[in-house]
């Protein structure tokens, strides 16, 4: 693997919860690289820091130490979050897709606002149409509100929202755990096909061994020695 071309590169990244005597390591030193078009599944027992790693990759949490690069450029540090003009590069696919949308707004309106805020594009209609197509979302659903969707439709809508800003990396934290088995299988298949077809990279946190097995490769995290009782 040539890490110089990695979409995401983490070197010796750690995370700590709390301060002083209450400080606990929640992510042991972790290094990994995710290449364009690659799907990397992150697995491990509860407390291993899987969701913490996802939050660091998304720029939602500071690492305690180590380096985080996106497309070869510093992404976040112990004291700095990602620059606003780069935030569109890494987008999340949430466990609770309805949380990605304002309940009273149509999907189209919510996605429009996300595109304008993250990219500055004033007329994102074509972006939204293309994103819905990539996410296998019926365009007719764009004019509905989140509460009018099934679980599978909501997850595809959340994926369309992420794709509309043209990211280079998707970070999915248990994206199928809230869905029934049949819908979860369909969503996971669509997500992996999307990665293969578009070249967008995927960092997937999952407890589903079948989902992980279908990814390009798997990274297993081990819980830090002082992380007893802490969630991942």
CATH fold descriptor of one domain: Rossmann fold
Q: What's the CATH H-level homologous superfamily of one domain?
A: P-loop containing nucleotide triphosphate hydrolases
> Which CATH class of one domain is shown?
Alpha Beta
What percent of residues are in strands? 15-25%
Uncertain segments are none
What characterizes the major β-sheet? 5 strands, parallel
The count of helical stretches stands at 6
Please tag this protein with its features:
232 residues; alpha/beta; Rossmann fold; five-stranded parallel beta sheet; 23% strand
Task: Please outline what is shown here.
By secondary structure, this protein is an alpha/beta fold. It contains 6 helices and 9 strands, in the order E-E-E-H-E-E-E-H-H-H-E-H-E-H-E. The chain is 29% helix and 23% strand.
Write a structural description.
The chain is an alpha/beta fold and 232 residues long. It has a domain at 3-101 and 166-220: Rossmann fold (3-Layer(aba) Sandwich). The chain is built from 6 helices and 9 strands. It has a 5-stranded parallel β-sheet. Strands 2-1-4-5 form a 4-stranded antiparallel β-sheet, with helices on one face. A hairpin with a 6-residue loop joins strand 1 (8-17) and strand 2 (24-34). The two termini are 28 Å apart. The mean pLDDT is 90.
Topology:
Blueprint: E1 8-17, E2 24-34, E3 39-43, H1 50-58, E4 65-70, E5 73-76, E6 90-93, H2 107-119, H3 125-134, H4 151-163, E7 169-173, H5 181-198, E8 201-205, H6 209-213, E9 217-220
Parallel strand pairs: 3-8, 3-9, 6-7, 7-8
Antiparallel strand pairs: 1-2, 1-4, 4-5
Helix pairs in contact: 2-4, 3-4, 4-5
């Amino acid at each position: 693997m040539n890490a110089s071309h990695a979409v995401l590169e983490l070197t010796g990244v750690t995370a700590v919860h709390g301060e002083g005597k209450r400080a606990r390591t929640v992510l042991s030193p972790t290094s990994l690289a995710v290449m364009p078009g690659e799907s990397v599944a992150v697995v491990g027992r509860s407390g291993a820091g899987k969701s913490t790693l996802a939050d660091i990759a998304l720029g939602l949490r500071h690492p305690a130490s180590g380096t985080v690069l996106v497309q070869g450029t510093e992404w976040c540090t112990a004291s700095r979050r990602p620059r606003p003009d780069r935030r569109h590069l890494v987008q999340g696919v949430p466990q609770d897709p309805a949380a990605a949308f304002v309940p009273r707004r149509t999907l189209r309106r919510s996605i429009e606002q996300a595109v304008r805020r993250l990219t500055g594009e004033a007329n994102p209609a074509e972006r939204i149409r293309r994103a819905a197509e990539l996410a296998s979302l019926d365009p007719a659903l764009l004019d509905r509100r989140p509460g009018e969707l099934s679980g599978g439709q909501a997850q595809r809508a959340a994926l369309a929202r992420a794709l509309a800003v043209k990211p280079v990396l998707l970070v999915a934290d248990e994206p199928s755990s809230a869905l029934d088995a049949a819908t979860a299988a369909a969503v996971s298949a669509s997500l992996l096909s999307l990665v293969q077809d578009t070249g967008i990279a995927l960092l997937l946190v999952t407890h589903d061994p079948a989902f992980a097995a279908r990814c390009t490769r798997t990274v297993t995290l081990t819980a830090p020695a002082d992380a007893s009782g802490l969630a991942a």
